[in-house]
Fold this sequence. Notes:
Pfam families: KduI. By secondary structure, the protein is an all-beta fold.
Amino acid sequence: MSELLINPKATPDQDGSVIKVTPGDAGWKYVGFEVYQLKPGQTFEKETGDLEVAVVLLSGKADAKTNKQSWDNIGERMSVFDDTPAYTVYVSSDDRVELTAITDLEIAVCTAPGKGTYEARLITPKDVLVAQRGYGSLEREIHNILPADKPADSLFIFEVFTPEGNWSSYPPHKHDEDNLPQESYLEETYYHRVSSPENGFAIQRVYTHDKSLDETIVVRDGDLVLVPKGFHPVSNPPGYKLYYLNVMAGPVREWKFTNDKDHEWLLAKN
């Protein structure tokens, strides 16, 4: 199995954890990613320390609070495939976040280095810009949870919905060189969900031009793919809807990427 592929636990741990990847686990410096599946009444809590943290409510409802703020009965969708953006709790460093499940709850905990610049806040569906990207079989829907024009110290967070038979993160691009203004270094995770968990799958390729990294990965519902470097397109077979949650962070909060020149010509058709 690819070292870039992280499978979820078949049964959640006592605290609800099904995926937990630290920067040390991934062999990089910036992005941490966790997924929890909680039952009603169960609580997730985390001291942020020197990290900024964004908790994305993938599905279900919860009460949330930090050291200074609280929000009751947040969450709207019961599945990532419901037609609405997620609720997200953003928490700065030197704070604490706690969520108590009201219904069955799945959350993604996204972490990166923080500087304590911004107050904790709730990002609601109306705060999320929904955009269509690409054309034809390259078209997908982007939910901009933490894009470049929204305040954060390190994190970028996006949800991507790829229709059946379509490609996304395509034409392939990379962001693995600290070479601004041409390109920024950003580590990235892809958390995948498939509309038919029993049968569905998708394909993600991660490769560099020199082929020092060249992997083609079969992903199924709940799998996480690490992208330490290289190009990283995704293909969704016919018959299934594909969702993935992207988390990126690096030494500078700028998203500057380079397209694979072998396929860049496709952009001229858009």
